[in-house]
Amino acid sequence: MASSTLEQHPQTRPIAVHEHGWATESRHVTSEGIVRYVRCTACGSRRVDVERAPIGPPEPASAVVGR
């Protein structure tokens, strides 16, 4: 019997809203700039950032993925 409701996949559930405090876990130099893998120190969510210029803040290159 088919279910009439669809459950969200655990990775697509909404993430608690708060101001993330990103800490770099690792960084790699690429042709696009410096790619940083960052983690929120409060909730553990992760994101990938790219720093295209030596001056200026990194830009998000991925969506935030929660735990």
Strand order in the sheet with the most strands: 1-2-3-4
Q: Helix content range of the residues, please?
A: under 10%
Query: How far is it from the N-terminal to the C-terminal residue, by CA?
Result: 32 Å
**What is the 3D form?**
elongated
Radius of gyration equals 16 Å
Largest sheet: 4 strands, antiparallel
Instruction: Tell me the structural class.
Output: mainly beta
Spans of 5+ residues with little confidence (pLDDT < 50)? none
Q: Provide mean pLDDT, rounded.
A: 80
Number of H- or I-type helical stretches: 0
Strand elements, count: 4
Give the strand content: 35-45%
Order of helices and strands: EEEE
Describe what is shown at a glance.
This protein is mainly beta. The protein is built from no helices and four strands.
Can you offer a commentary on this structure?
With 67 residues, this protein is an all-beta fold. The protein has a domain of 41 residues. It contains no helices and four strands. The chain has a four-stranded antiparallel sheet, with no helix packed on it.
Write the layout of secondary structure elements.
Blueprint: E1 22-30, E2 33-40, E3 46-51, E4 59-60
Antiparallel strand pairs: 1-2, 2-3, 3-4
